[in-house]
Automatic annotation (TrEMBL):
Name under which the protein is recorded: ABC transporter ATP-binding protein
A Pfam match: ABC_tran
Keywords: ATP-binding, Nucleotide-binding, Transport
UniProt superkingdom: Bacteria
Keyword Zinc in record: no
UniProt cross-references to SMART domains, sorted A to Z: AAA
CDD domains: ABC_DR_subfamily_A
Database matches in InterPro entries: AAA+_ATPase, ABC_transporter-like_ATP-bd, ABC_transporter-like_CS, ABC_Transporter_VariousFunc, P-loop_NTPase
Domain ABC transporter: residue ranges: 12-227
Keyword Magnesium attributed: no
Gene3D superfamilies: P-loop containing nucleotide triphosphate hydrolases
Organism field: Granulicella cerasi
Length: 227
């Protein structure tokens, strides 16, 4: 496939996608197209199905019914183009931030674009020379380090589940600034960056929300441009 047709494919396409757990539907017949280059904020109460949708897009779980494509492919077939950050930071408490990122970098062999650990930390406002272990970091610092970890691979699609939960304003702002910078970084294959994030805190995500989606009871309620 040439790069011209790649850029016209939606970044994310769900077609009547449902995810059942036993008889319970965490996601109900969701149909959705998100164009490459979009910045989408997904709102909804606890249990609305937001995390389920993100996990499907990340390829961490499969739809029970319907289909999902990411850049026109099965999510797992394009996993090196996707970065996903869950509620858990996935960092090792006993290591420093730079040691954590260096460890993950060693696992990312084969990725075409890899940002250096110290550069990725500086970009979220953390000092790579900080000798403290991540276990001693504040929640805000941990979240920033987690974002620095997922952005090391310079993904085309970034999925963030509640990235601003329990953050002070400075940390939230540092994360928003880094996300806006990432959206404007040129990608190696010319695909514009796509962001999909869930939050309870619509205010914090407002600078990033080109489009706002709402979910309730596993259904998608609205899909429109933010005013
Ligand atoms: N592995 C699972 N097994 C059974 N039920 C599940 C599973 N994962 C999610 N659910 C259920 O599916 C529903 C949607 O959960 P999901 O985590 O997607 O919601 P959410 O909108 O992300 O909520 P929150 O903001 O609380 O994370 C919930 O009722 C949840 O209990």
């Amino acid at each position: 496939m040439n790069s011209a047709s790649q850029t016209t494919l939606p970044a994310i396409a769900l077609d009547r996608c449902s995810r059942l757990y036993g008889r319970f539907a965490a996601l109900r017949e969701v149909t959705l197209d998100i164009a490459a280059g979009s910045s989408v904020v997904l709102l909804g109460e606890n249990g609305a199905g937001k995390s389920t949708l993100l996990r499907l897009v990340a390829g961490l779980t499969s739809p029970s019914l319907g289909s999902i494509r990411v850049f026109g492919e099965e999510p797992l077939d394009v996993r090196e183009r996707i970065a996903y950050m869950s509620h858990a930071t996935m960092l090792y408490d006993e290591m420093t931030a730079v040691e954590n990122l260096a460890y993950f970098a060693s696992l990312y062999e084969g990725f075409t674009t890899l940002i250096a650990p110290d550069e990725s930390l500086r970009a979220v406002g953390l000092d790579p020379a900080n000798p403290r272990r991540v276990g001693e970091y504040s929640q805000g610092m941990r979240q920033r380090a987690a974002l620095a970890r997922v952005l090391m691979t310079s993904p085309d699609l970034l999925l963030l589940d509640e990235p601003f939960s329990n953050l002070d304003v400075d940390s939230a702002n540092a994360m928003v600034a880094r996300l806006k910078q990432w959206q404007h970084e040129p990608s190696h294959n010319g695909t514009p960056r796509t962001l999909l994030l869930t939050t309870h805190q619509a205010e914090l995500a407002r600078p990033l929300a080109q489009t706002t989606l709402r979910m309730n009871g596993g259904r998608l309620l609205s899909f429109g441009d933010a005013a």
